[in-house]
Amino acid sequence: MSLGSALLVVLASCVAFLTTAPAAADGADGCTATHGAVVAVDFGPFGGKVERGCDPAPTTGYNLLHQAGFTTTGTQHDGPGFLCRIGYGAFDSGTEYPTPAAEDCVLTPPATAYWSYWVAAPGDKDWTYSSRGAMTRTVKDGDVDAWVFGGTDIGGTKGKPAFSPDDVRVPGGHTPDPGGSGTPTGAPGQIDTAAAAAWLAGRLTDDERIVDDGATTANYELTADTAYALAAANGRNATLDKVTGFLAAHVADYAYPNGAGQAPDATAAARLALLAETTERDPHAFGGHDLIDALASHVCTAGPESGPAPGCTAAGDFRTAFQTEGQALSVLALLRAGQIPPAASVDRLARLQCKDGGITSILIRPGEYCDGDPATTGLVALVLQRAGGHDDTVDAARTYLTESQSADGAFPGYTGSTTGSVTATAYAAQALRALGDTRRADAAVGWLSRHQLDGGGFGFEETDTDPVVHPTSPAVLAGAGTSLVTVTTKPSVPPTSGPPTEPGGTPSGSPTGPASSPSGPAPGGGTGPDLKKGVAYLTAPAQLQQGRYYTDAPGSGTASFGLTIDGAYALAATGLDNARLRGIVDFLDQRGKDATGSTIDTWTGFGTGHVLGGSVGKAAVLAEAVGRDPRNFTGHDLIATLAKAVCTAPSKAPDRSCPAKGAYTYAPSVFSQSLGVLAQLRAGEKTAAQQPIAYLESLQHPSGAWPSLIPSTGDSEVDSTAMAAMTLDLAGGDTARQAVRKALAWLASQQLPDGGFPGASGDSVNSTGLAVQGLSLDKDAYAPQITRALAFLAAQQNADGGFNVAKEGQRGSDVRASAQAVGGATGISFGTLKADLTGTSPQPGPTSDQGGGTPDIITAGEAGGTGDTGGASAAGGGGGGGALASTGVQATALAAVAALLVLAGWRTAVAARRRADAHTGSER
Asked: Chain centroid to CA 467: how far?
């Protein structure tokens, strides 16, 4: 899961490079301007020069670096996936820098001194801070990568390379045509909008509302989307009238989740206003509410930099919009109602445009990382064209869309994806048609027509075989040649501004937000996720192999011990598969090996002289939860080790083992500190834990929140606050009880309108699961927040039982997010988590895996089945625990990470925390 103080180290020694040719030009032999990719590493801070190499057949940024002749070393804390040192044979006999004397590479390097990753596409004149790790970034012919040692902020506005992409790329070639590479060759076609509308109507419960599988309350967002589609496809009709009437009767539930008199959920209010306008009703009196006045009356005059501004990230925001979709829909709702929107609100949309012309899906602030996507870009282009006055922005958006379109007519869902997305293609088609690019719009609709499924619905991506509501609605709109700007039940409507007249044809469907989840939460209630399905996903052979999880997949060869314990916590919290839980515990306790020969000792640091206090605490808590002896677990006395790991004083640089008295050695986060304290308290060592408890208490902000990192960077984080609250609840005492009360109040204040909570990955499943656990410490007082959070989690559960990382970004189940969602939904605190393994049998002894693979590589700025599908669901806040100590975000979600942290009020440097890769099971 979305910044602050500068983490800059100016690389002055590299300035001279600007006036000279690259010193290692011969390193690019085998590549041309249009064939192969180039990587440059700046050894200037170490007395060297810029060294260059290339890969004639590029695949990923990681392979490019190594194929070009560079070597790397990771950290003990994060594993080989974190880039800590780089070496090159032509420089200093291949010595990797920084040397061990300067950086021991035990912990994640500080954000002021690390190897940052920069990229440039063909024709780019400037560097862009990489939105993802080198392992997940797809490199294409003509691309240029750079690695620079020093520091930067998460937006990549400081610490850039002191040389330009042109200084290191191979000469020759040509800059790509900004108008794209020609019209796509995909065959045209027509969407069967009548069949799609009929499929949507068939999803309605009582012909009036969409209800997610397993839920009991309506999904208002998808219900509204369905209404748009029915209006576009069929005009005014009885089913549409019934759906519209239902939504009018539930305006308070949908648009005012915090109660009357509070600011509305801007996105919900805008959707309802647009529905009223589409169906020829009055948005000033829809369901007894003046939605237009509600939107216009809650426009932010400033962002958090000017003081407390709940729901605002910058001036011009519609309060609580948070995402670009909500901002755009709010502007459009006012326009369609005949009201001029505030100029600052329209300008805000234009300021969300990235350098390449794309529009980011998050309401970022100036200087924060910007990564556009075709769906958001299409929606905003439509709205800005309707608003007028931003022709340059609209033109740049059109260019971005033309350059993003594949030859077959499809558009990807996000940067770096090569898979066609139905939602992205639908929004892009709507925008291109409105902007007069009929041939490209027809190609996009043709692609959509070829991916319409039997029965009329659409899946999320071209490979999907199951239809869902979310992408079907915008596909219908695209097929009808309309959009939310023009869709109406009137028989015929002339264009409202500059766009050419919309073509006729079979009416189509309704768009949904480009960053929405497949099935949004039902605000105000609903059941929680299906825990049986969640456990079936976590224990399926595709995820769990011989008692352990992997950073990417079983074939990668590198087990993630932190993630393995996370999975064990989830199984312990539910009690639904104690046999496989025992398999995990036995694998860890017997120090089973993965294909690399690593055991849990590798992860905790035993035998290295660098014992990681948080990792030891995490393992000890698992032992205590399942009835094993933490004084004899994994072959070690973990409790005695923790006692010895308590710092008596801060260490002196370059030794970063002890940040303060009372901290644990090499425990870089509030999570790590909390795990150590929990382990000691559960072992009855309250006296030995007093200094660590006092240190943890000292880190709490006056607001009640805790930061992510140790030492504190001043940020406030949901995950850490929930974890610290569970820890101090177990510690007891007046000081701890007061700290817990403040923490829970702060947590409740951070809940988003859809029930989720902000985290490193955006509207985060991880953070929401932990928030449920924290708030469940006082479940009676926070029952409404818990109920809404559980509904959010249920909406993020996929058909396979797993969970998405966040509401935004790439769809698909993620093991780490799924473990946190399953354990978190039980509401059980880490302090009371317990599982009885009595009656289980010893599992097969641990063996080493076969195979291997290339490890993930993470750069600064990253954070770092089948089975019974019965009706088990989350116990809404009941009991105590199941928090997962290691949460994080996929590298592919980094673009959303950087921007969405604003939702939690993060205005300081948290880049170091997100450099720990979620796929390596790193401790925070």
From this structure: 24
The per-residue pLDDT for 843 is 63
Q: Are 887 and 767 in contact (CB under 8 A)?
A: yes
Give the integer Cα–Cα distance in Å for 191 and 198.
13
More confident site: 50 or 508: 50
Q: Is the per-residue pLDDT at 520 higher than 70?
A: no
- Which of 171-185, 765-779, 849-863 is least confident? 849-863
Chain-wide mean pLDDT for the chain?
81
Structure-token match 């592919």, residue found? 892
From the list 732, 655, 666, 657, the residue with the least C-alpha distance to 693 is 732
Q: Which helix (H) or strand (E) holds 147?
A: strand 144-150
- Whole-model pTM: value is 0.55
**Is residue 168 pLDDT above 70, yes or no?**
yes
Q: What's the rounded Cα separation, in Å, for the pair 494 and 475?
A: 22
Contacts of 578 (CB under 8 A, 6+ apart): 571, 835, 836, 837, 839, 840
User: Cis link prior to 711 (omega < 30° from 0)?
Assistant: yes
Euclidean distance between CA atoms 776 and 769, whole angstroms: 11
Q: Which stretch of 32-36, 707-711, 850-854 has the lowest confidence by average pLDDT?
A: 850-854
- CA–CA separation, 429 vs 441, rounded Å? 4
* Residue 754 and residue 523 in contact, taking contact as beta carbons nearer than 8 Å: yes
Which string of DSSP letters, residue by residue, matches 207-264? TTEE--TT-SS--HHHHHHHHHHHHHHHSS-HHHHHHHHHHHHTHHHHH-TT-TTSPP
Is the pLDDT at 897 greater than 50? The verdict is no
How far CA 18 is from CA of 53, 90, 245, 478, 533, in Å, comes to: 18, 21, 66, 48, 57
Residues facing 873 on adjacent strands: 530
Q: What average pLDDT score do residues 188-195 get?
A: 93
Residue owning tokens 């988590």: 833
pLDDT for res 136: 66
- 851, burial (CB in 10 Å: exposed 0-12, middle 13-18, buried 19+): exposed
Output the pLDDT for position 920: 33
Residue 234 reports pLDDT greater than 60: yes
Pick from 747, 771, 806, 254: nearest CA to 524: 254
Exposure string over 638-648, b if 16+ CB within 10 A, otherwise e: bbebbbebbbe
Dist. CA 706–CA 742, nearest whole Å: 11
The three-state secondary structure class of 346 is helix
- For residue 312, how many other CB atoms are within 10 A of its CB? 25
What is the DSSP code string of 662-710?
TPBTT--BHHHHHHHHHHHHHTT-TTTTHHHHHHHHHT--TTS-B-SBS
How far, in Å, are 245, 270, 523, 558 from residue 251 at the CA level?
A: 10, 11, 11, 50
Q: Determine the Cα–Cα distance for residues 883 and 569; give it in Å rounded to an integer.
A: 7
Can you say whether residue 371 is alpha, beta or left, with left for phi > 0 and alpha for psi between -120 and 50 degrees?
beta
Q: What does the alpha-carbon distance between residue 543 and residue 34 come to, in Å, rounded to a whole number?
A: 40
Nearest to 804 by CA among 558, 520, 547, 512: 520
pLDDT band at residue 807 under the 50/70/90 scheme: confident
Q: What was the pLDDT predicted at 172?
A: 58
How far does CA 842 lie from the centroid of its chain? 38
Output the pLDDT for position 123. 77
* DSSP per residue, 629-661: -GGGBTTB-HHHHHHHTB-SS---TT--S-SST
Indicate the pairing of strand 70-73 with strand 85-88: antiparallel
**Residues 566/885, Cβ–Cβ less than 8 Å:** yes
Among 142-156, 330-344, 635-649, 725-739, the minimum mean pLDDT is found in 142-156
- In this structure, what token pair is assigned to residue 870? 């019965």
Please check whether residue 506 is in contact with residue 480, taking contact to mean a CB–CB distance below 8 angstroms.
yes
Mean pLDDT is lowest, of 282-286, 344-348, 529-533, 849-853, for: 849-853
